[in-house]
Amino acid sequence: MTRIRPYAEHDFEQIQALNEAEGWDQLVRQNDLTKEAWRQSNVAFVIESHEGDVVAYLHGLTDTTVSLYVCELLIAPSHRRQGLGEQLLQHVHALYPDTRLEMLASSSSHTYYEQLKFRPFYGFRKTIQE
Fold first, then answer.
1. Distance between CA atoms of 101 and 58, rounded to whole angstroms?
2. What's the pTM value of the predicted model, to 2 decimals?
3. Cβ neighbours of residue 8 under 8 Å, at least 6 residues apart?
4. Which of 22, 13, 6, 18 shows the shortest CA–CA distance to 109?
5. Rounded CA gap, 126 and 130, in Å?
6. What is the CATH architecture of 3-115?
7. Which positions of the chain have pLDDT values less than 50?
8. CB of 85 within 8 A of CB of 56?
9. Partners of 60 in the β-ladder
10. Are the beta carbons of 59 and 43 closer than 8 angstroms?
11. Distances from the Cα of 3 to the Cαs of 57, 98, 101, in angstroms?
12. Are 100 and 121 in contact (CB under 8 A)?
């Protein structure tokens, strides 16, 4: 059994372990900035296993009325294909039902979001120190 709950500061170490395992090196290298981003976010949820481990997370921002931006959504490999990503997306969208849900996807994850009825849109990204 898993449960969605709001992010707490003690979750950060496990979140960074998930990021490292996924190869999201910039988030790991920029540890203090990543931690501050989580602290400042108004959309920050984790899924906890019955053992109390963080096995998935969603981190984002919303203006509460028009846009809800998902910055990162990550599921531990051992817990993929169980619908946890969809649960997190539904959970946060239910909190702000009038917003449009915005996110970027990688070339390897776009089909997942298309299955959930997201449509592609054109965008740009510039990363720190690029």
1. 13
2. 0.85
3. none
4. 22
5. 7
6. 3-Layer(aba) Sandwich (3.40)
7. none
8. yes
9. 43, 70
10. yes
11. 11, 24, 22
12. no
Sorted by where each begins, the domain ranges of the chain are: 3-115
pLDDT of residue 65: 93
Instruction: Give the DSSP H/E element, type plus range, for residue 47.
Output: strand 43-48
User: At which residue do the structure tokens 């109390």 appear?
Assistant: 52
Report pLDDT for 2. Answer: 74
Residue 53: closest CA among 32, 27, 25, 84: 84
Phi and psi at 10, nearest 5°, equal: -70, -10
Tokens 């490292």 found at: 20
- pLDDT value for 129: 63
Tokens found for residue 48: 């906890």
Element (H, E) at 22: helix 12-22
Sheet with 43-48: list strands edge to edge.
3-6, 43-48, 54-62, 67-75, 100-103
How many CA atoms, within 13 angstroms, populate the side-chain half-sphere of residue 116?
17
Say how far residue 4 (Cα) sits from the centre of its chain: 12
For tokens 């920050």, the residue is 44
- Amino acid symbol at 118: F
Give the Cα separation of 21 and 23 in Å (integer). Answer: 5
